[in-house]
Amino acid sequence: MDDKRYPFLLAPLDLGFTQLRNRVLMGSMHTGLEEKRDGFHKLAAFYSLRAKSGVGLIVTGGFSPNFRGRLHPFSAEFSTHRHVRKHRNITTAVHQHGGKIALQLLHAGRYAMSPFAVSASAIRSPIAKFTPSKMSQRQINNTINDFAHSAELAREAGYDGIELMGSEGYLINQFICQRSNQRGDDWGGSYDNRIRFAVEIVRAVRARVGRNFIIIFRLSMLDLVEEGSTYDEVVQLAIELEAAGVTILNTGIGWHEARIPTIATQVPRAAFAWVTEKIKQQVSIPIVTCNRINTPQVAENILAQGQADMVSMARPFLADPEFVLKVEQNRADDINTCIGCNQACLDHVFVGKRASCLVNPQACYETELVLTTVTTVRKVAVIGGGPAGMACAVAAAERGFKVDLFEKNDHIGGQFNLAMQIPGKEEFKETIRYFTRQLDQTGVKVWLGVEANVDQLRDYDEVVIATGVQPRIPPIVGIEHSKVIDYQTLISQQITLGKKVAIIGAGGIGVDVATMLTEPDESDLDSWLREWNIDKSLHHRGGLLPSDDYISPRQVWLMQRGQGKVGKGPGRTTGWIHRRTLEKRGVKLWAEVQYQAIDDEGLHIFVNGQTHTLDVDNIVICTGQTSVDNLSQQLTALGVSVHVIGGAEDAGEVDAKRVIRQGVELAAKL
C-alpha cells in the first residue's frame, strides 16, 4: 500500500484530548431512516460500513433538541433516555471499527413545517408554509438548555461529539442575521446581541459535556441572502465560538431560501474553498471546508494549499462507502464518484422518502439490497452498455455469474455519453469511468461494436435486454426539413447551430439542450461565481453582488405542449436552478404551444390564442424517447430466460436513477 499520493488527506488530526485518523469528515445527511420503526438497525449498518472504510469523523443527520425544533411533526428528535438506547446501536457499530461519530443537533426554527414553528422573530421564510411565533425569553433559555441536555444525552449514548447546526438558515442562523431577527431585546438589534444565542448554546453545551468531547459548530460562512452576515461579522462569531469551547468549525454555505446553487452538479468542484481559506487565518481551531468535493485529489489539493484543516464530504459516501479505504489503498480509480445530481438523496428526503444514490442504489439499503455470492455459476448476457446494462453486468459479476456484455457502439455509457457533454453535467463521465473500471475488475467480457442476435444468445442461462432508447419524432408537418435535428444527433456529433434556435420539448433533455446552447464562453470558477452574483471579495453583506445577469447572444425558445412552468427539468431540488439559469440567460420559456408546421420560414406555432412564425435557424427535437428492443420476443419464443430493463422496458423520461437501481435489483434476484 502506498498512501504517499494523499499525505495531507490521510494525515491524522490531533484535537488535544483525542485524535482523528485522517482529515475526512463525513458530513451530515438526513436519510429518512431516522424516523422509521426499524430505522436505527439500518442506520447502524449504514454508518458502520463507512466507519469500516476509515472515515475520520462521521456526523449524523440532524436531530432536534425539542419538539418545536422538528422539521416536520414526526421528524427525529433526541431529548430523552429512550432516544439514548436507540442511538447506542449506531455508536456501538461505528466504534467497533475504530470510527468516531458526532450527533448533529438541528433546530428548524422558521423552517419547521408545522404550526408550532418558532424563531427569533415572527417572520415567515419564503420557502415555509407557516409563520413562526416569536420566541419569548423563557423559550430562548429553555431552548439553550435543551441543546445542552441533548448534548449530554449524546455523550451518554456513546457519541464522540455533537455538531450544532448554526448555518443553512436554521434557528441559530435565524438569530444571527438581521434578515430574520428584528428583536429589540438582548437577543436582537446589535450583532453582539444577535450572536448571543449561538455563543450561549456553545457555553451551555461545553459546561454540560466537559472538556473531552467534540463540539463542532456549523458556521454559515456565506449566507447568500439579503441582510446576511458580513465577512467581518462571520470572523467575529468564529472567534467567539472558539473562546466559548468549540472544537471544530464546520462550513455552511447558503441558506435554504437562497436562490443560488451550492451543492448541485452545476456547481464547480470545491467552489467555496476560498471562503474557508480566508477565515482559517482568523482562528486556531481546525476548520472544515465543504460543498462539491467529490474526489480524493480535489480534497488533497484543498488541504495541501492550506485552505482548510479537514474536508467534509457527505454525498460522496452515499456514492461509495469505501471512499477512504480506496484512497488508503491507492485505488482512486475504483471510487464510485458522486455526480451531485441530488436525484436519489435530497430529492427523496424532501418528499419524505428514504435517501439513496443514483450511482449506488445500495446506499441506505445495506441490509436489503445485498449481492450474495451464487452457489451455481450461470452464464448471463447483458445487451446494451448504457447505465442499466453496466449496473446489471457489474452487480451480476460481483455475485459470481459469468457475464458477457454486448454493446453495438464502439464505447459504453449510453445516454451518459450525451449527458456528460452538457455544461454542468461533466461529472457523468466519472460514472462511465467507474463502470468501465468495474467491468474490467469483475471480469465481465465486454463486446464492443457487436449487435447481438438471437443465435448468439440462445445458449445463455439469462439474457438481460438493456438496449435503451431512441428519440421520439413528433408528427409535425415538415419535420423532415433541413432545419430540424434531434437531440442525440446534435449532442453526439457536436453540431454548431445558428443564432436563433427553437427547442420542441421542455423536459429534462430540452432543458439540457437549452443550457448547452446558451453557455457562456468562459467556464472557470470566477466566471461561475460572477454569473450567480457571488462576491468573492466578501465586501458585500451575505456575500451577494448586485444582480448582473448574463444574456446569451443566441436567442433560444424552449417550448412545451403542456401547462405549468417551463424549464425546471426533472429534479425536485435542482429544477429551480435549471429554470433560473435559463431565465438569467434570456431563454424564452413558452407553455401550451401547438406546433403547426415547419418550412423555410421557420416554425409555425399557435400559443396564447395567436399564431406565430419563429424565424429560426434550427429546430431541435427533444420530445421524449421510444424504447429499443428487437430481441426479447424472439428469445422468449425460444424458451430463453429474458429480462427487459431500463429504457428498453420503459422509455418515459430518461431516468438514470430508476434504470441503475433496476439493473442492480435484477442482478440481486438472478
TrEMBL record:
<dbReference type="Pfam" id="PF07992">
    <property type="entry name" value="Pyr_redox_2"/>
</dbReference>
<dbReference type="GO" id="GO:0008670">
    <property type="term" value="F:2,4-dienoyl-CoA reductase (NADPH) activity"/>
</dbReference>
<keyword id="KW-0411">Iron-sulfur</keyword>
<dbReference type="Pfam" id="PF00724">
    <property type="entry name" value="Oxidored_FMN"/>
</dbReference>
<keyword id="KW-0285">Flavoprotein</keyword>
<dbReference type="GO" id="GO:0033543">
    <property type="term" value="P:fatty acid beta-oxidation, unsaturated, even number, reductase/isomerase pathway"/>
</dbReference>
<dbReference type="GO" id="GO:0010181">
    <property type="term" value="F:FMN binding"/>
</dbReference>
<dbReference type="InterPro" id="IPR036188">
    <property type="entry name" value="FAD/NAD-bd_sf"/>
</dbReference>
<keyword id="KW-0479">Metal-binding</keyword>
<feature type="domain" description="NADH:flavin oxidoreductase/NADH oxidase N-terminal">
    <location>
        <begin position="9"/>
        <end position="333"/>
    </location>
</feature>
<keyword id="KW-0288">FMN</keyword>
<dbReference type="InterPro" id="IPR051793">
    <property type="entry name" value="NADH:flavin_oxidoreductase"/>
</dbReference>
<comment type="similarity">
    <text>In the N-terminal section; belongs to the NADH:flavin oxidoreductase/NADH oxidase family.</text>
</comment>
<feature type="domain" description="FAD/NAD(P)-binding">
    <location>
        <begin position="379"/>
        <end position="640"/>
    </location>
</feature>
<dbReference type="GO" id="GO:0051536">
    <property type="term" value="F:iron-sulfur cluster binding"/>
</dbReference>
<dbReference type="GO" id="GO:0046872">
    <property type="term" value="F:metal ion binding"/>
</dbReference>
<dbReference type="InterPro" id="IPR001155">
    <property type="entry name" value="OxRdtase_FMN_N"/>
</dbReference>
<dbReference type="InterPro" id="IPR023753">
    <property type="entry name" value="FAD/NAD-binding_dom"/>
</dbReference>
<keyword id="KW-0560">Oxidoreductase</keyword>
<keyword id="KW-0408">Iron</keyword>
<protein>
    <submittedName>
        <fullName>NADPH-dependent 2,4-dienoyl-CoA reductase</fullName>
        <ecNumber>1.3.1.34</ecNumber>
    </submittedName>
</protein>
<dbReference type="InterPro" id="IPR013785">
    <property type="entry name" value="Aldolase_TIM"/>
</dbReference>
